[in-house]
Amino acid sequence: MELNICHLYPDILNLYGDRGNIITMKRRLESRGISVNVDECSIGQPLDVDKYDIFFIGGGQDFEQEVLLRDLASGKGKDICTAVEEEKVFLAICGGYQMLGQYYKTWDGVQLDFIGAINVHTIGAKERMIGNYMYRTTPESSGSIVVGFENHSGKTYLGEDVAPLGMMIKGYGNNGEDQTEGARYNNVFATYSHGSLLPKNPVLCDFILQTALDRRYGKTEPLVPLNDTLELNAHNYMEQRLSK
Ligand code: GLN
């Protein structure tokens, strides 16, 4: 088996080492004998939607998000919407999550019209939501506890057909108001969790990988367990600290 991963806008949306999520997916697949190809696609480069099983989009600040608008409007936004409707797997972080939504109105009143691949919108607040945080994903997204780090001024609100990725245990999540965190629509997994999302949360990582394998090959055998001692040590340390 093999999976093809597309890293969208790696040179623009690249906060907090979000690309570590790609390294983690690749390593965890290769450890099970599954081949992985990773391509990058940025501004001005055509996107071959059919080729890929997983799309990854990292986080970026308001400025970087604005830089993308023209490229998204020139056709890539539509291609991404097609991929979402075809139930390709997406992992989108923070600014990349907001970009999949309808629009982002920044705290100083600038409206960035995004692609509407998922029915969410984001409104900037003056106060940023920053810190280590923790949530439990819904049963449809593995039902596991995720530890992470968030840093955003945007408050995201979910539309009717979009489920949260999880419910907050500690921290702000989507908006600091309704206890939701992230979004699930088709096979889109979107979250505010930066940097070490998948390295520290192997259960969620394998759930995403299994989703991509099942989509491509039909129902596949469960992924064989790996030795996750280090990953779970890091996870449990954070979980304990955040439980206090
Ligand atoms: N610019 C967005 C916000 O502040 C996203 C930031 C990020 O990706 N960390 O809400």
Automatic annotation (TrEMBL):
SUPFAM superfamilies recorded: Class I glutamine amidotransferase-like
Reactions catalysed, as given in the entry: beta-D-GlcNAc-(1->4)-Mur2Ac(oyl-L-Ala-gamma-D-Glu-L-Lys-D-Ala-D-Ala)-di-trans,octa-cis-undecaprenyl diphosphate + L-glutamine + ATP + H2O = beta-D-GlcNAc-(1->4)-Mur2Ac(oyl-L-Ala-D-isoglutaminyl-L-Lys-D-Ala-D-Ala)-di-trans,octa-cis-undecaprenyl diphosphate + L-glutamate + ADP + phosphate + H(+); L-glutamine + H2O = L-glutamate + NH4(+)
Protein's pathway: Cell wall biogenesis; peptidoglycan biosynthesis
Key words of the record: Cell shape, Cell wall biogenesis/degradation, Glutamine amidotransferase, Hydrolase, Ligase, Peptidoglycan synthesis
GO-annotated molecular function: carbon-nitrogen ligase activity on lipid II; glutaminase activity
An example Gene Ontology biological process: cobalamin biosynthetic process
Residues that coordinate or bind substrate: 128
InterPro entries from the UniProt entry: Class_I_gatase-like, CobQ_GATase1, GATase_3, Lipid_II_synth_GatD
Sequence ranges assigned to domain CobB/CobQ-like glutamine amidotransferase in this UniProt record: 4-201
Job of this protein: The lipid II isoglutaminyl synthase complex catalyzes the formation of alpha-D-isoglutamine in the cell wall lipid II stem peptide. The GatD subunit catalyzes the hydrolysis of glutamine to glutamate and ammonia. The resulting ammonia molecule is channeled to the active site of MurT.
Xref: HAMAP family: Lipid_II_synth_GatD
Subunit note: Forms a heterodimer with MurT.
Family of the protein in this entry: Belongs to the CobB/CobQ family. GatD subfamily.
Record protein name field: Lipid II isoglutaminyl synthase (glutamine-hydrolyzing) subunit GatD
Species, as recorded: Agathobaculum butyriciproducens
